[in-house]
Input
Amino acid sequence: MVRHIVLWNFNDSVKEEDKKNIKKGMKENLEALLGKVPGLQEIKFIENSLEGSTHEFALFTEFDTEEHKRGYSTHPSHVHVANTFVRPFTADRKCLDYVVE
Output
């Protein structure tokens, strides 16, 4: 099993009053990838960061294998969601991938 965790902040162009709706679109569309991307076993968008966190929201995913995780990166459904609902609004992306032992 491989875990892929991504952390983001909003970019400077996002208005405070728009953040709630943007996060809603991210959550709905990212979590809808379950069942569309081969080997994706779990996906959860985390939007309720606590005060003191360095990032505003995160994505937690689990894949069967490293090959499945690599395939996710280029899968058309993921690319569409990332390019439409995530990348236009985010900055300061951090990522951690690891094998669950």
